[in-house]
């Protein structure tokens, strides 16, 4: 569900710190400095219990009870919520307010480097409403965090807010990833507007071996796009930005959130994408996340996925026939015609995804995106019903 | 911050037109085809177009958004961008980026046929004075690698190139030797009747990724009438060649072209059926070129372009019916033109480009070491008109490009800047052919209202657009699949 935050007890620190929760394998890998690892003593693993092992210069110890820690060394214990924290995860502790937050979950499919709370758009359905705060300090924090992330992590997103508002700070984060995580795919979610300055786009050439950008486009003309992002001139900036990114040899995904007014013009947008941006490597048509600003605009933005079926069919087939790689995100299978199932991905990050009671007997549940954890009745498709065995093709 | 309603983002809605061209639909005079400078288009009523031009349409109309999305008008300048037009234009013209990739080597003018319409001015079989000699061929290989293109198609032509196979073998070996450090992507093609194709020749071709391109004019009676040999066995020998070629090189390595004479125009269905009978899945229906022997025998073999268009319509009906009944058959010329209507991409076809493909997309190395910008230019020279000789294989390519011939081609080589073409709604999808106009009208710029090239192009575009406009979804899918196949082969713009 929510990214984990929990209450802590601790001793030995008074400023915020990031630590990797370590077991024997993490120690043996040699990837991480001992000084940045918390040895996980909750397992009562005999191998970890030897005095010699404990006397290494660990940052501290993750314990169930303070008495489990070696005398005089820093220690941390988590409340009951924290029992899901496992070895390999990265915790950020704030000793003064007795809190810890999970910054990285080993094996999770939705790990995000949160770049900034600021944004230059103000989308009507924003799930992460921006705040105008000075948070450039995140650059250093993220660079430090990447050192603690598993080297074999498959993918990480960099999101916000609008990450490009960090300016060259974003370059620093990505450059650091190139050093610490060269094998990890880095996907930056950006509105692309700052790349209207082609010089800025060029600074990302060859920055990381596997870097790509997810850029939203909501319409084939400024009237619709600028309305959705609530910013006059944004459409022109994003389009110029997309060409600048392509010229800078960047890999691009187009993300289209399926708001009612966007769906109403989706076919034209599909044609526009083929004619104007045929170089993009992926197009994601995405169901709405019913949180943040979306909740205040239910009437304007909500459309039951069931009612999108004809236009989704038409648009997806149009794009796929032209060799464009298209996926459907965040839409439950029962709301889609079966011919679209191959395009539907289990796209919702595990920590905020769930199924509904009706899904219990569904035979395709394990292939289905399910719903966002915070879905309510008014955001639920009337098509939700279990698919019976044998009904699927 | 307060959220604003959609109207708040309409901006300044008094609009300006972007460059557009239109054409009344010949089959429905109330409607018009409207196209942008980079080849986006829509069909709308003439009345609506009038309102658009007079500044009367409003943002609430669906047409307003469509015109904006297709870059036919621009509303608020501060909120709009022309970047997509630039990108589309660059993509459309991406064949310009790397210089000529089609290189035709005429290894011999000798031929064992005596076709009345021959475009090539062939010579009798025994006359080895018309073979490409070794020194000229090696110079040609040097020149070939002076061009920058990463992909090269080397096509061997004649005459009948198989009559001088030793030269082909030597050329291929020289090219591959040099390519060891050039690392170009090279495809060899041989344009031949495939008569007398030997096992040894085939074995060599198999070792060097050859494609075979032959001529099949239709059923036996038609093919033999078009391609006379004393033994009257041209059809049988070509079929044997096709069969042997497929066996050794694979089904897809053999393709066939159709030459359409006056006789052919009576037999559209029979020609298409013959292609199916021989297992082909594509056919290329192109009218006669006015060169070579064809010009001298025009009265006997030639025909008005209207007759060709009638033939083409009947053939296309038959091809579409064949596809609907489950046999895949693609008409190449339709695929090329439809790719320009239905996709943003360019194509590899050199005869339909603007700027022209002559010298910019293709180069011909003749048997005697002379170099031409196109096959048509070579044929003019064979008839005594040397206007389009670029130079000789002894000279570097920069001298060819600086030749008076090239200057003459270039000044008439951009369709968008030619009289009449400049105002044509199809121009962004069409090409310029200065050599053709010179051959037919004795002027590289030419006079469109009386130009057969233009009548053919207009006729084809009108015809295909009318079909598209009227066709069922199934038929649209068939036509679209031809276009998308061409588009998927197109060189894509590296960067926008």
From TrEMBL, chain A:
- List, alphabetically, the CDD domains matched: Radical_SAM (cd01335)
Q: Which domain of life is it from?
A: Bacteria
Q: Which SUPFAM superfamilies match?
A: Radical SAM enzymes
- Asked whether the keyword Iron is assigned, the reply is yes
> Record keywords: Iron included?
yes
A GO molecular function for this record?
A: iron-sulfur cluster binding
Cofactor(s) recorded for this entry are:
[4Fe-4S] cluster
Q: Which UniProt keywords apply?
A: Iron, Iron-sulfur, Metal-binding, S-adenosyl-L-methionine
Q: What is this protein's record name?
A: His-Xaa-Ser system radical SAM maturase HxsC
Source organism per entry reads Oleiagrimonas soli
From TrEMBL, chain B:
**A GO MF label:** oxidoreductase activity
**Cofactor or coenzyme needed:** [4Fe-4S] cluster
Q: Which organism is it from?
A: Oleiagrimonas soli
Record keywords: Iron, Iron-sulfur, Metal-binding, S-adenosyl-L-methionine
Keyword field contains Transferase: no
Which residue ranges does the record assign to the Radical SAM core domain? 97-331
Against NCBIfam families, the record matches this protein to: rSAM_paired_1
Which Pfam families has this protein been placed in?
Radical_SAM
Q: What is this protein called?
A: His-Xaa-Ser system radical SAM maturase HxsB
Q: Which residues form the signal peptide?
A: none
Q: Does Iron count among this protein's keywords? A: yes
- Record's InterPro entries? Aldolase_TIM (IPR013785), Elp3/MiaA/NifB-like_rSAM (IPR006638), rSAM (IPR007197), rSAM_paired_HxsB (IPR024023), rSAM_sf (IPR058240), Sulphatase_maturase_rSAM (IPR023867)
Q: Which CDD domains match?
A: Radical_SAM, SPASM
Which residue ranges traverse the bilayer? Answer: none
Q: Sorted alphabetically, which Gene3D superfamilies does this protein's record hold?
A: Aldolase class I
